[in-house]
Amino acid sequence: MTGQDNRIDAIIVGAGFGGMYAIHRLRSMGLTVRGFEAAEDVGGTWWWNCYPGARCDVESLDYCYGFDEALLDEWHWSERFATQAEVLRYAMHVAERYRLRDHITFNARVDGCTWDEDAQAWTVSTELGETVRARFLIAATGCLSKPNRPDLHGLDDFAGDILFTQAWPREVFDLSGKRVGVIGTGSSGIQSIPVIAQKAAHLTVFQRTANFTLPAVNRPIFADYEAEIRADYLGHRREILQNKAATVKQTIAESAFDLSDDEREAAYEDKWQRGGAGGIPVLFADSLTSPASNEEAARFVRRKISEIVDDPEATESLTPRDHPIATKRICLDTDYYATFNRPNVTLVDLKKTPIERVSEGAVHTASADYPLDVIVFATGFDAMTGPLRAMNVRGADGMKIEQAWADGPRTFLGLMVAGFPNLFTITGPGSPSVMVNMIAAIEQHVNWIAALIDHMRETGKTRVEPQAAAQEAWVDEVRRVADATLFPLANSWYNGDNIAGKPRMFMAYVGGYPAYAERCEEVAGAGYAGLELSA
Ligand code: N01
What we know:
single chain; about 525 residues; alpha/beta; 5-stranded parallel sheet; 20 strands; binds 3-acetylpyridine adenine dinucleotide
């Protein structure tokens, strides 16, 4: 498909799991591809987020590629929830096994992507000054790769170290003997706080919003369970793809009220003890649609917090009351609440006393000064839309993606954007993305994109873009499905609430993996209904 002007077939931005599989898949179709990656190596989110305690919260045996049975068979995970280091080793193994690095330029952040209508090609530039043209542009830039770094007054005056969970130093950074402050209590903060507390002389946790977190109960993988899965790994993959979250199904009843009070309590307790992906809210199908069902789960967890945390004031601050459980991303932890019983840990409730400023040696709230040697920001991301905006994407007629998305992201199936021909977004806004097992979602996306490109080759088409009406119908569908749940009730990054000025819009498709994949297949089966294909 390489054109007469030396352009290649596809540029793939990002060498995380999305980019790696896209490179592999398109290459195996005989296409010419080029990958660009800002980091030094593959891994994407698992490259950058190497903070202490970073771990996957999907079971390892499911959080892996399923496209090659030999790969499934040869890779062995050591723990139920793999550490960041182990997931990164897996990514590197995949890169090595399929010789992906040969096609990727590392340390090359993409800073411009412009559609040229006459040439029917994307021109992509990097900060290194290189410019490449390709028929297709695949943004495998991840949902959570553009950091949110709060601009605290006086931060530049801080004389200690400033660290970010999403760009943790790669060399060993010794926190022993240090006074450390962690700002942020989302998944990254909640995973890192117990580990940092074990090292630091003193840890101060600055919490703005109390979050629900559940015990991961990480452990070695049970040998008999692994053997059972390995006996038919592909069958297991097919089975998990029938489940909403594309991982092992844990729902035991449609409604929390299908069980008696005692049975429900016992079910919550059992799940609390066993741990596992999704935790207590996944036990009942109505946990995220029925306020009463949700409140049962929330009440159970609030009681657990009060049983674990000794100090009544800390208990109250740590108890989430302002959002239904799991409407902000549920966290899985190891000893998070118990960490606040340690003598070297202080909790600062920013709802009561906000941070006013930072000085040379301390963080100052409205009521106290906290002397620190290190500040850790675990303050999240400009999720889903941020990574695309950062690439300065300009589509037909020079329209910038931020103009097209001024009222919130609009996509067709989370995969394509009207006005941006031949652009594909892997796990983009409007797709299930973080609501499901991401690697499974990635494979489905890439396979769908590859099939569409193949269809274009066969039919002599060179340009594809979604019809505006089809895109609007999908945007409405994503909204309708979200509005039938409790998700919109929380202030969360799902809604864009964490970034000042970002339009409020629920950005993920929460109808589940099977419904989404089926819809994608319907579109393809109907000759790519909703897409404008031309030569
Ligand atoms: O980010 P977050 P994250 N002053 O946005 C606070 C995935 N992930 O990196 O809630 C003070 O969840 C903010 O407070 P509030 C997963 O999808 C997965 O932790 O906005 N505080 C919040 O407490 C996850 O959802 C894994 O009031 C400020 C925190 O910072 C997503 O990544 C592990 C502040 C940010 O929480 C993001 O998680 C890690 C300010 N100015 C991440 N600004 C696993 O697989 C923000 N905050 C396990």
